[in-house]
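User: Hi! Is it possible to get a structure for several chains at once, not just one? Here's what I have:
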Amino acid sequence: MSYRPLVAVVAYHLGDDRVARWPHGGYGVPGPYLECLRRAGARTAIVSPGEDGPPEELLEPFDGLLLVGGGDIDPARYGGDARDGHLYGVEPDRDELEIQLLLEADRIRLPALCICRGMQVMNVAFGGTLYPNLPDVPGMIEHGVPVLDTQSLHDVEVEHASRLFATTKVSTLAATSHHHQGVHRVGDGLLASGRTSDGLVEAIERDHDLDVDFDRWMVGVQWHPEDTASDDPAQQALFDGLALLARVRGSKAEHHGIGRTRAYAIAEPDPAWPGRFEEEAARLQVALGAQVVRIEHIGSTSVPGLAAKPIVDISVGLVSMEPRGGYVPALVDLGYRTVLDPTDPDHEFASRDLAGERRFNVHLCLAGSRFERRHLAFRDWLRTHPGDAAAYGKLKRELAATHPNDVHTYTDGKTGFIRAIEAQALAAASRAV
Amino acid sequence: MEPILLVRCDAFETYGVAPSALAAAGATTRIWDAVDPAAERPDLADASGVVLFGSTSNVEHADERPFIKEVADLTHEAVERGVPFLGLCFGAQILAWALGADVIKARVRELGFEPIRALPAAADDPVLSHYGDGDPVFHWHEDTFELPEGATLLATSDGVPNQAYRVGETAWATQFHAEVDAAEAEMWVTEASAEQDLEQTWGKSPARVREEIGLHMAGHERRGRETFRRFVEVARQRS
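Assistant: Yes, the chains can be modeled jointly so their relative placement is included. Here is the combined structure:
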């Protein structure tokens, strides 16, 4: 069984008499947030305001962080007006804890999802500001008013080149919202990745270069994905994306040898690999039909003479990555397990096992995208540069010999070589065809 | 915004830069594989724009290949309804033909990169004004067309005068392959040269075409992406 990641969720204060049959207050988190994380395969643990200790110590056990809804942030933190009559539910110690945890999560590359108030905390943590009361801002659509228990259902237009699109693979999200404040100035180093029709920023994320920081993911959404996640796969995908990256991170963490990573084996080059690719490519073409632009054999099994894990890697260039319904059900019918890629807007992953052994890895990608081009360029380079192919084979054997039970270290160990070759191959491809 | 409808008119169509350029511009897409008799023609009410791609078929084959009349019908309807339309190569011929103009053999067959000349009318065109005078663009065609009524010619060339035009405020077409990218051009050259002597039929050897691709394709892809970005802007404004 694969490792189940542990996600920290920061709690609310509960006032006196809010803990049943107990005169004192306490701390709590609304159930739907936790249910969404559990559906995504994560374990959850609550961290409460008042917890003492440096943020690096508080986050040490965790693989991911979730900030949830709540009252307003202390306006003093962003130069707002503390006397504003619309302010409610200010929890200064929670503000402090959440900001410290977020900045630490950013430093240690811990994946984080920030919802509603959490998204506003994220914006303020990175130096952004908030509108004190949206109903007072001219031209705004209805965003719901928490103190009146009203909510609104509106669309959010998603920026394609964003983690938000990568995670949901939807360019217009249906979102339920109830908030009376909103992002005014976007914080430093943040990307506005979603907006409503009135122009209000409804989603932000840490703006990382996909090619360099492909494993980083800090996403904030102003709406409440937990409200509709059980019916809307795009909303559940936000929790799935967090849990997936938390799992990968946790699997790589220092551990005591139990269940966090897995063994693998390198096989001698097999002349049967290209034939297996051809057969599988034909099945994929029939199943995916006119969505397919091209199907290519990639990875080590596509380079004659190269030792490899005996898994055939296939690149399937699609006309569009959305909707997922255009390709996921067809792949499931073929016996594939699909996995979202919450960091790349132009990529999703699927794999197929036969008799308990992994046989095919399928990379669904947008035709003409950087993802597709760099994988094809890498293959073509190794096919035409035997010296580099031999060096790559040697690196793989060394990694397999030193880390036979840890596929993550094996994979990470190859990344530097692959990126260097890809850069060279892409540069060569843009000079001449 | 409803999806942009991509109309596929040939088995060797891979849409060039269109998929990634349309996605980057925030558009969703839908395919109509017009050459597949089982594929049902979509309703234009569900599309915010139509892109009609190239084909190894020509209008002269309309009687034996029924898809040609179907795509011409769709094109006519798109123009009537004001659904933004972009025709590429065969798509440019179909737009003219659907609007009653003649499609005829061109004086010369064009293959590979040849420069176009942008006309003054193109200067403020919302979709094609970024093509500069003398820009090399990728061609592969033997037919050309008369300009349909109400068309504005935007670009011309020495070999084949009708290179790019607009009809009304919502339809555009280029005789050249504004969409093609390096991978697709390479595939076409490989496929075609396996069946025919390109030098003899088209006046350029595969090596010559590949050399031109190496020289000019990067800029052509950039301009192609910009074409689709602008087309999405028009579609967004009208939806």
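Chain A touches chain B at residues 157-161, 171-172, 289-291, 293-294, 317-323, 345-346, 366-369, 376, 429-433 (CB under 8 Å). The longest helix of chain A spans residues 407-431.

User: Great, thank you!
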